[in-house]
Amino acid sequence: MDMHVIQKHVGPSLQFVPSVGVPAPAGICSLTSLQTLLQMEASAEMIRAMGALVELRTFRISKVQGCHCEDLFKGIGRMIHLTRLGIQADDNQEISHLKAFQAPPLLQKLFLLGALSKESLPNFFTALSKLKNLKFLRLVGSRLNNDAFLYLKGLEHLVKLQLYHAYAGDKLYFPAASFPKLRVLKIRGGPYLDEIE
């Protein structure tokens, strides 16, 4: 890999921040012009309310359980103005049903905290690869192996990539043509990672 990356940090483990948030207030679905919604706790009621919040530009949701994911992703797909998205799994939960993820076309920054369901990673990263505005990706606790990491390399427009406790392999290999626009790469907490090439 040539020196597109100007910052590379392989450091000690980070402490996981527990999934925290606040319950959605009653009547939130009536706020149809809302543009920013941060740290809402996932619940069946919250996921249903999302269908009306199509003007959101920034959305961050916490305590997401596997049973929420499919409907959550469908709701996110209706947020066509969304530029920043953060999804934090509930403690010891997996972000599943990634096949249902409908990538908002203007998405610029994506934060995913939690293990990612392996069987649908190809579809998920293929959907992300079509986003020309996606410049920033942070994965925390994703448990990617080398095969799963290969799918990340299709994200050609990334400028900043952060992998925190996200990689479970022992070697990361970056072919010369991968991540052509990447400027910052941060890797922390790879317990088995011995080599980056």
Automatic annotation (TrEMBL):
This is Disease resistance R13L4/SHOC-2-like LRR domain-containing protein. Residues 23-188 form the Disease resistance R13L4/SHOC-2-like LRR domain. The keyword DNA damage does not apply. It holds the Pfam family LRR_14. Keywords: Repeat. InterPro entries: LRR_dom_sf, LRR_R13L4/SHOC2-like. Gene3D superfamilies: Ribonuclease Inhibitor. It comes from the Eukaryota. The keyword Zinc does not apply. Signal peptide: none annotated.
